[in-house]
């Protein structure tokens, strides 16, 4: 209104002044604010667009006072002239309109700026000399239209949370809107469209759980979320949310399997295939894990196929000639009879020493074979344990004195040498005196943890003075040489040796003898267990043999060392019972633990349980809050292997030979055609072959036996009349041991089946002259791995064939009759034997001759008695006939019809054919008929033979 009033006053002034020319410029506002809707072209300006001109509106000056148009100029954006234009709506009033040449897009450009200028129509009819107003700035804002829907940044959101807790935010979902204005581009709210889920989402997209989650109830939760903008447009596509519930984080090993099964023959198996370490995001810089497999209960150190120490030495190729200082108690080795023994799973004899009165004094006859300064001392040792009472011997300072294992003084040509092997705490010492009369003693000292850990350890000490080599569990240890310059009493120059203690010096013994005590006193008693204590004089034992003696064929191993990551270390102890892993990266450490394997190369693994332990220690940057993991305990179960079957054959149940052959200088071989076969029976899957069920298949295998025994059944052998002989040359050549007593012959030592066949085929049975019996039974059996697997028991019955000449001798008549009547010596049974070079006067024709002679003799006697009876009847009268009858009755009772058929029971026992039995029965019936025997009563005498 003010502008219009000003313009009106301006016109009046111009009229009053009488100026009729185009003297004034049009006038517009200096700035305009405009709004245009998206997808539209009309701009609404504030204030409205009007242009004013002060020239009077006269008839000749009308054009000068009118507005003919507006002109748009570029603004700051430089696009005003292209996109916008201004038009005049009323020339007289100067009203104008601003519009865009094409619809505008808010998303492309929301703000536009340009300038506008008005010009009048000019002077005269033709409108020449028009005037222009000043330039006004126009700001145009494009108003947005809600044309876009929200779009999620990701189509799938995943997260994992531990169970049992409420979280303010588990995961955040996010959606965007392409509209340009805050009203339509802003996401007003999110919504979970999956029903009945324990989760909620806020307007910012944060998802939280509404209740504690339980991994056992549901491990994974999946649901869908949508979004809305403020124009209520829904998202084009919903987003999927997957939340995994983790069990409560407890630091330690995950995937531990307490029981691991091993099938013998399967090589190596991983012990922890799924094991991994969970540190609950604790930062660690060093990890160390120790895996321990306990096999000490199976054998000393580790399983050695259950062979004894002597058998292991033979299998390892050790040089023969060792002397056993602790042999099994026997009449020939009685110095160990007073020592208590403990059972051992590998059949080796374990001796217990209590540190005081348990001492084994080796006889001089044994010590004399141990001379020389080159020898190898080997033993199994375990300090303490084994139901042993603690040692009470203490020194003056209250410390336990040295415990002596072996103490020995032996003769070397014209001098004596002395040595003693002792332990003190965790130290092992060898006190060696090469010449007790001249040289000075030397002490070799080793500091060993194996001496004091109360476990079995194998010690091998090779002395080739001045060189001394110690092997502990197959590993070499260097000694610290100590020249003992102290006051040591010289050992008496006499030969002696003891195990478990050492004798007191001669000076002390003399003092004690003056106090009327004459027995030898021993000091430095050993407290622990010993086994397999042997000394072999001469050259020292090769290193390869020592390693073989302790080589473990089962234990811990590592799969592939090349796959170890950087910074990883692996260490396995010699007995392969402890494996240590060390590293600094958890992922590499987990991969390494999963490659720890159990290896067993035994042909017949010892079944049973092996305890298993895993101990872990962690070192963290923050030592105060570092994790402490508890020790894991499990066990490895070795299943029962396929048992080998040792079969003895080739020996018949009966062996018949003439008695003189047994009385020869070499006797008779008992098992000349013995065959030993070892086979394995295992299950075979026959389904692939179209057969139902399973089957057993037996495979012959090369094997090693370690003992066979020949035992007479019934009474023991009479050394004055009979004996069993063995080819000792074969036994010595093969290095086997033999025990020959009246109760059995035992051949022991690890050797092949063929060697045992040769030795057993040389076993002979010999009788003294005139000591022939009628039968003798023997039993043969073999075993391996110290009786773990045994063969079938082969029983042999030996029959002695006596000639007729011997039967005629009065002293042998009764024995011959018993032999003929014995059911196990009949001709039918002899037909089943192989009789090389049979004699003409063997038992078969001799028995027939004797039977004929006996029958003829009895027939003659009966005829004579019959004739005598007839004569008696004629001589006696009628009065005496009753008496004769009575006497005849008695005679009838005494009349004997003796039928001796020694072949009957023998034939029935040996299973003679039915035709032969039938003939025997017909003959017996004919003998019993009245035509052959008359009216006399018959007594049939049969003597049954014993089985």
UniProtKB/TrEMBL annotation:
CDD domains: Cadherin_repeat. Residues 916-934 have a biased composition (Acidic residues). This is Calsyntenin-3. The keyword Lipid metabolism does not apply. PROSITE patterns: CADHERIN_2. Its main location: endoplasmic reticulum. Coiled coil: none annotated. InterPro entries: Cadherin-like_dom, Cadherin-like_sf, CLSTN_C, ConA-like_dom_sf.
């Amino acid at each position: 209104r003010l502008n219009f009033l000003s313009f009106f006053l301006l016109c009046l002034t111009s009229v009053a002044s009488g100026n009729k020319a185009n003297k004034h410029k049009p006038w517009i506002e200096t700035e305009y604010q405009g709004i245009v809707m998206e997808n539209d072209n009309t701009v609404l300006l504030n204030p409205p667009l009007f242009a004013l001109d002060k020239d009077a509106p006269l008839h000749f000056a009308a054009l000068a006072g009118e507005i003919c148009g507006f002109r748009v100029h570029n603004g700051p954006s430089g696009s005003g002239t292209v996109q916008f234009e201004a038009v005049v709506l009323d020339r007289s009033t100067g009203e104008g309109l601003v519009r865009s040449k094409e619809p505008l897009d808010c998303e492309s450009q929301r703000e536009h700026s340009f300038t506008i200028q008005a010009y009048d129509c000019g002077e005269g009819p033709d409108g020449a000399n028009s005037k222009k107003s000043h330039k006004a700035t126009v700001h145009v804002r494009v108003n947005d239209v809600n044309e876009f829907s929200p779009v999620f940044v990701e189509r799938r959101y995943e997260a994992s949370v531990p169970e049992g807790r409420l979280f303010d935010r588990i995961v955040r979902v996010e959606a965007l809107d392409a509209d340009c204005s805050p009203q339509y581009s802003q996401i007003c709210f999110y919504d979970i469209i999956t029903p009945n889920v324990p989760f909620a989402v806020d307007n910012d997209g944060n998802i939280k759980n509404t209740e504690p989650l339980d991994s056992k109830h549901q491990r994974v939760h999946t649901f869908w979320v949508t979004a809305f903008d403020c124009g209520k447009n829904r998202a084009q596509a919903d987003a999927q949310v997957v939340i995994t519930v983790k069990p409560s984080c407890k630091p330690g090993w995950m995937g531990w399997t307490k029981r691991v099964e091993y099938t013998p023959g399967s090589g190596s198996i991983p012990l922890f295939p799924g094991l991994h370490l969970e540190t609950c995001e604790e930062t660690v810089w060093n990890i160390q894990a120790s895996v321990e497999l306990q096999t000490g209960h199976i054998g000393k150190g580790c399983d050695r196929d259950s062979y004894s120490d002597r058998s292991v030495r033979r299998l390892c190729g050790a040089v023969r000639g060792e002397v056993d200082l602790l042999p099994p108690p026997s009449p020939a080795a009685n110095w160990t009879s007073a020592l208590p023994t403990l059972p051992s799973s590998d059949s080796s004899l374990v001796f217990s020493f209590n540190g005081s009165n348990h001492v084994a004094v080796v006889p001089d006859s044994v010590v004399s074979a141990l001379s020389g300064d080159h020898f190898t001392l080997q033993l199994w040792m375990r300090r303490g344990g084994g139901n042993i009472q603690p040692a009470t011997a203490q020194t003056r300072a209250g410390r336990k004195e040295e415990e002596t294992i072996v103490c020995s003084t032996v003769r070397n040509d014209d001098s004596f040498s002395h040595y003693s092997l002792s332990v003190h705490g965790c130290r092992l010492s060898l006190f060696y005196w090469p010449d007790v009369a001249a040289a000075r003693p030397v002490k070799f000292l080793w500091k060993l943890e194996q001496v004091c850990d109360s476990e079995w350890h194998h010690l091998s000490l090779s002395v080739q003075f001045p060189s001394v080599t110690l092997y502990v569990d197959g590993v070499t240890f260097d000694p610290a040489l100590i020249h003992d310059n102290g006051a040591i009493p010289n050992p008496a120059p006499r030969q002696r040796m003891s195990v478990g203690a050492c004798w007191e010096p001669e000076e002390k013994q003399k003092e004690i003898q003056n106090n009327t005590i004459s027995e030898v006193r021993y000091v430095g008693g050993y407290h622990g267990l010993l086994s397999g204590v042997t000394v072999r004089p001469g050259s020292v034992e090769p290193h390869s043999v020592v390693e073989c003696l302790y080589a473990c064929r089962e234990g811990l191993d590592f799969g592939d060392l090349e796959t170890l990551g950087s910074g990883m270390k692996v260490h396995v102890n010699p007995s392969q019972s402890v494996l240590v892993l060390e590293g600094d990266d958890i992922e590499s450490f987990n991969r390494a633990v999963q490659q720890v394997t159990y290896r067993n190369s035994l042909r017949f693994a010892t079944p049973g349980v092996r305890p298993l332990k895993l101990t872990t220690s962690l070192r963290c940057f923050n030592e105060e809050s570092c994790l402490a993991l508890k020790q894991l305990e499990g066990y490895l179960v070795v299943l029962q292997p396929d048992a080998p079957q040792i079969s003895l054959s080739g020996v018949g149940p009966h062996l018949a030979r003439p008695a003189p052959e047994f009385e020869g200088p070499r006797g008779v071989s008992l098992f000349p055609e013995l065959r030993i076969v070892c086979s394995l029976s295992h299950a075979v899957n026959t389904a692939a072959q179209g057969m139902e069920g399973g089957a057993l298949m037996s495979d012959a295998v090369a094997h090693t036996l370690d003992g066979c025994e020949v035992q007479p059944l019934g009474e023991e052998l009479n050394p004055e009349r009979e004996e069993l002989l063995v080819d000792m040359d074969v036994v010595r050549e093969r290095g086997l041991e033999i025990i020959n007593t009246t109760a059995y012959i035992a051949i022991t030592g690890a050797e092949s089946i063929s060697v045992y066949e040769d030795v057993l085929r040389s076993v002979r049975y010999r009788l003294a002259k005139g000591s022939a019996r009628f039968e003798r039974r023997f039993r043969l059996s073999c075993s391996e791995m110290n009786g773990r697997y045994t063969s079938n028991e082969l029983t042999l019955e030996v029959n002695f064939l006596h000639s007729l000449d011997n039967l005629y001798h009065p002293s042998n008549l009764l024995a011959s009759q018993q032999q003929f009547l014995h059911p196990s010596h009949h001709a039918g049974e002899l037909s089943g034997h192989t009789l090389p070079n049979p004699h003409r006067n063997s038992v078969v024709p001799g028995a027939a001759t004797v039977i004929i002679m006996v029958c003829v003799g009895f027939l003659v006697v009966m005829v004579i008695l019959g004739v005598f009876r007839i004569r008696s009847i004629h001589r006696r009268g009628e009065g005496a006939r009753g008496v004769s009858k009575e006497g005849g009755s008695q005679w009838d009772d005494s009349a004997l019809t003796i039928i001796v058929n020694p072949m009957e029971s023998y034939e029935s026992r040996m299973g003679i054919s039915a035709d032969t039995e039938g003939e025997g029965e017909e003959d017996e019936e004919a003998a019993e008929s009245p035509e052959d025997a008359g009216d006399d009563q018959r007594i049939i005498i049969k003597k049954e033979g014993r089985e």
